[in-house]
């Protein structure tokens, strides 16, 4: 079997992964220890992010004709891909957190919802809270006025109830 035939399934795997992905982040992992890499992979896996190391030439072939084609210019050195099909900010958020913790981990670039982002763009994206956090904040802000109204009505009812009890006692005497 020719080498090209052996590499074709890997290129197809990469192309299929990035085709429908919400977010693809390219990172240079050179210098990470095995322990650090294991911790990083575990958190990415728990967030539903696929993190894999591929050869640059394979990624180059897979990116051709996709939204990830601008990433081809960065394919030098020891690179890994973090791909999320559901959460657009998860790979950037987790990788940026570990890049601060382990300075040897370097964010390179990424494609989020079809838009190319350089290192600064990925770092900015990492500061955006997750979808669940944003929904929680929205729910809290919607719920706050209702809770305040309920408290005020409760206080009015309690005050009205106390006045009625005082009035009842004064009529008895």
TrEMBL record:
A molecular function GO annotation: large ribosomal subunit rRNA binding
Keywords recorded for this protein, A-Z: Ribonucleoprotein, Ribosomal protein, RNA-binding, rRNA-binding
SUPFAM superfamilies listed in its UniProt record: Ribosomal protein L10-like
GO biological process: translation
Entry function: Forms part of the ribosomal stalk, playing a central role in the interaction of the ribosome with GTP-bound translation factors.
UniProt record similarity statement: Belongs to the universal ribosomal protein uL10 family.
Family annotation (PANTHER family): 39S RIBOSOMAL PROTEIN L10, MITOCHONDRIAL (PTHR11560)
Subunit relationships: Part of the ribosomal stalk of the 50S ribosomal subunit. The N-terminus interacts with L11 and the large rRNA to form the base of the stalk. The C-terminus forms an elongated spine to which L12 dimers bind in a sequential fashion forming a multimeric L10(L12)X complex.
Record's protein name: Large ribosomal subunit protein uL10
Source organism per UniProt: Candidatus Blautia faecigallinarum
Gene name of this polypeptide: rplJ
